[in-house]
Design a protein that fits this description.
Length: 318
C-alpha cells in the first residue's frame, strides 16, 4: 500500500488514540479517557503499530513505556488534534459536554497556598455538578514538571501563584490577595508593632515553602531579590498547610496571602501582622495548555475552579 493510500485510510480518531495511548502509557487508562473499551483501543493500537512499523508502547518494569518513535510522533499528533479542534470545535462542541452524565477523569496540579478550603470546596462542587466524574489532584513540587505534563496531556490544569506565569500557557486570573505575616501571638512583632521594621523582618527566622521548580526560590524571595534584599529562611517545608502549626510553636515568620492566614485565626495561637517590605499583591492563576484550550469539558472545569476560588475570596471579604 502506498503512503498516500495509508494517509487516506487514517482517520482523526486514530490520531486521538495514538496521542492518548502515548500520554497515558496504558491501554486501560486510554480506554477510560476515550470513553471506550480496552479491546477497542487494543485493536486501534495494533492498527497504529502496523501503520507506523513500530511497537509504540512496550513493557517497562511493572508498566508500559512509549518507544522513541512514539515520543517523536507525539508533538505532531498534538498539533494535528489542536488544529482539528480549532477547525471543527465551534459552539456545537462547546455545548456537547454534560456534567451530570460525564464519567471523565479530571487531573489538576495545585499548590495549597491559595486557601486550605479551596480543594475541599472544589471537590464538593465537582461531586454536586458532575457526580460520576473523577478527580486526581497532584501536588506541585520541584520534581513535578507541570509545563511538560501540561504539554503531554498528563495534567489538565495547574493552579498556583507566579510573579510571571509561563508565556506559552493560557492563564486565567483567579484573584489577588495582599501579603501579610503570620506569627505566634507572643512574637515580638505582635508585642511591639512599631519595631517591626524591614531590618527586623529580614533578620527574623522565616519558614518558607519548598520551591515549585528546581533552582527557583519562590515569589516572595524573587521579589526581595529584585529589591536587593534577602531574608533568613530557617525552615523550608513541602507541607505548606503545616506551616501555621510550626509558626504557632515558635518565633518563625510565615509570609503569604491574607486569605490563607485568616483560616487559622481563632484555631491556633497566631496573629496576622503587616509586612514591612511593601510586597505587591499575590495573584493566583489557573494555567492550561493550548492542547486542551477548546475542550468543552475542560472549559467547564476552568469555570468551576474560577467560581470556587472567587467565592472563597468573596467570603473572606464579607
Amino acid at each position: 500500500m502506498t503512503q498516500r493510500a495509508l494517509f487516506d485510510k487514517t482517520e482523526l480518531y486514530l490520531i486521538r488514540v495514538l496521542f492518548t495511548v502515548i500520554t497515558e502509557r496504558s491501554v486501560s487508562r486510554a480506554a477510560m479517557r476515550l470513553s471506550t473499551t480496552q479491546p477497542a483501543v487494543s485493536a486501534q493500537l495494533k492498527r497504529l503499530r502496523e501503520l507506523v512499523g513500530d511497537p509504540l508502547l512496550v513493557r517497562s518494569g511493572t508498566g508500559m513505556a512509549p518507544t522513541e518513535v512514539a515520543l517523536q510522533l507525539l508533538p505532531a499528533a498534538e498539533a494535528l488534534l489542536t488544529n482539528a479542534q480549532t477547525l471543527f470545535g465551534g459552539k456545537a462542541a462547546a455545548l456537547a459536554f454534560t456534567p451530570k452524565a460525564s464519567e471523565l477523569e479530571f487531573r489538576i496540579a495545585a499548590s495549597d497556598y491559595l486557601d486550605p478550603m479551596f480543594l475541599p470546596h472544589l471537590v464538593e462542587r465537582l461531586k454536586q455538578e458532575a457526580p460520576q466524574a473523577r478527580l486526581t489532584i497532584h501536588a506541585l513540587s520541584a520534581e513535578f514538571d507541570y509545563r511538560a505534563r501540561l504539554a503531554r496531556g498528563e495534567v489538565d490544569l495547574v493552579i498556583g501563584n507566579w510573579l510571571e506565569p509561563p508565556e506559552e500557557l493560557h492563564l486565567g486570573r483567579l484573584f489577588s490577595d495582599d501579603i501579610v505575616c503570620l506569627v505566634a501571638e507572643d512574637h515580638p512583632a505582635v508585642r511591639s508593632p512599631r519595631s517591626w521594621t524591614q531590618e527586623r523582618y529580614l533578620g527574623a527566622d522565616h519558614v518558607a515553602p519548598t520551591p515549585l521548580a528546581a533552582g527557583a526560590v519562590g515569589v516572595i524571595d524573587d521579589y526581595l531579590a529584585s529589591q536587593g534584599h534577602k531574608r533568613r529562611i530557617s525552615v523550608r517545608s513541602p507541607h505548606f498547610a503545616l506551616t501555621p502549626l510550626m509558626v504557632a510553636r515558635s518565633h518563625l515568620v510565615l509570609t503569604t496571602g491574607r486569605q490563607f492566614c485568616n483560616r487559622y485565626l481563632g484555631t491556633l495561637p497566631v496573629r496576622i501582622v503587616r509586612c514591612p517590605m511593601g510586597f505587591p499583591a499575590l495573584t493566583y492563576y489557573q494555567l492550561w495548555h493550548e492542547l486542551t484550550h477548546n475542550a468543552a469539558s475542560l472549559r467547564w472545569l476552568r469555570e468551576l475552579v474560577r467560581d470556587v476560588a472567587r467565592g472563597l475570596a468573596a467570603e473572606q471579604k464579607a
